[in-house]
Specification:
The protein has about 210 residues and is of the alpha+beta class. The chain contains 4 helices and 9 strands; from the N terminus they run E-E-E-H-E-E-E-E-E-E-H-H-H.
Length: about 210
C-alpha cells in the first residue's frame, strides 16, 4: 500500500507537503492572476486548475530569469519542483516548494536569491532533460470528463486511470473522484431514459 495518498494535504494549491515522497515534473497549461499575497497561479497538466502552483517571490524571480516576463510563453513548458525543508518564514524553517530543473534553458542557471534579510546566496537551476517523464493525462481531461454522459465509458476511464504508471498518485486520485461524481450525476438520467423506453415498449404491447 502506498501511504503517500493518505497524507496528502487538503488544499486549493500545491503545498510543500505534497512532495514529501519526492519531486515532480509539471507541465504549464495556464498562468492566471492571484491575490495580493500570492499574485501568480501556475496551472499544470498534472494537478489541474483546482490545485495550481503558486510560486513565492524567489521562485517567481527564477521563472522570469529563465523564461522571461511574458507568461503566455510558459504554456507547454515544464519544470521540476520539490520540497525544500530549509525554506524559512518568520525566521523559522517551515519548508516550501523550490524549482530544481526547467525546460527551455540550454545550460545551468545560477542567480542570487535572498535567503534571509540582507543575505543572499547563489541558487542553481538545471536544464530539464529532454527525456524527462511527460504526463500521459490529457491537459483537458477535466472538461472531457464533464462532457461524458455514458456510465460505461466513465467506468472505462476509471480503469484507464488505474493502469497509469509514473503519474502523480494525488492527481490520479482526484481524477478518479471526479469521474465517480460524474457517474453519480449521469446515472439517474440514464435510468430515467431506460424507464421511458420500457414504458413506450409496454404501451405498444397493449395497443389493439
Amino acid at each position: 500500500m502506498d501511504l503517500s495518498t493518505t497524507i496528502a494535504p487538503k488544499s486549493d494549491q500545491l503545498n510543500a507537503e505534497d512532495f514529501l515522497s519526492g519531486p515532480a515534473t509539471i507541465t504549464v497549461t495556464d498562468v492566471t492572476a492571484g491575490n495580493t499575497e500570492q499574485p501568480v497561479n501556475i496551472v499544470t497538466a498534472e494537478y489541474g486548475p483546482r490545485r495550481p502552483y503558486k510560486p513565492g517571490k524567489s521562485m517567481r524571480r527564477v521563472i522570469v530569469a529563465a523564461w522571461g516576463v511574458d507568461s503566455a510563453d510558459y504554456i507547454g513548458r515544464r519544470m521540476t519542483i520539490f520540497r525544500d525543508p530549509d525554506v524559512k518564514f518568520g525566521g523559522q524553517d517551515v519548508g516550501g516548494i523550490r524549482i530544481s530543473h526547467m525546460s527551455h534553458i540550454d545550460r545551468r542557471m545560477t542567480l542570487p536569491l535572498t535567503v534571509t534579510r540582507g543575505k543572499r546566496a547563489p541558487y542553481v537551476v538545471e536544464p530539464l532533460p529532454v527525456d524527462a517523464l511527460q504526463s500521459k493525462i490529457p491537459v483537458d481531461i477535466e472538461s472531457r470528463i464533464e462532457a461524458m454522459a455514458d456510465p460505461d465509458k466513465l467506468t472505462a476511464m476509471i480503469d484507464w486511470l488505474g493502469k497509469l504508471s509514473g503519474e502523480d498518485e494525488h492527481r490520479v486520485a482526484e481524477l478518479v473522484d471526479l469521474v465517480h461524481a460524474r457517474i453519480a450525476a449521469v446515472e439517474p438520467s440514464a435510468d430515467a431514459a431506460q424507464q421511458t423506453i420500457q414504458q413506450e415498449l409496454g404501451a405498444e404491447e397493449v395497443q389493439p
